[in-house]
Amino acid sequence: MNPFGTLVLGTRGSRLALTQSETCAEKLRARGLRVEIRVVRTTSDHRPETPLSVIDRRDVFTRQLDEALLAGEIDLAVHSLKDVPTELPEGIVLTAISERHDPSDALVSGAGWDVDGLPGGATVATGSLRRRAQLLHRRPDLNIVEIRGNVETRVRKMRDGDADAIVLARAGLERLGLTSQIPHSVLSPNVMLPAVGQGFLAVATLKDHPLQGFIRGALNHEVSERAALTERAMLRTLEGGCRVPVGALALDREGSIWLRGLVASPDGALVYEGEADGREPEDVGGRLARDLLEQGAEIVLGEIREVRSS
Question: Which pTM does this prediction carry?
Answer without folding.
Answer: 0.90
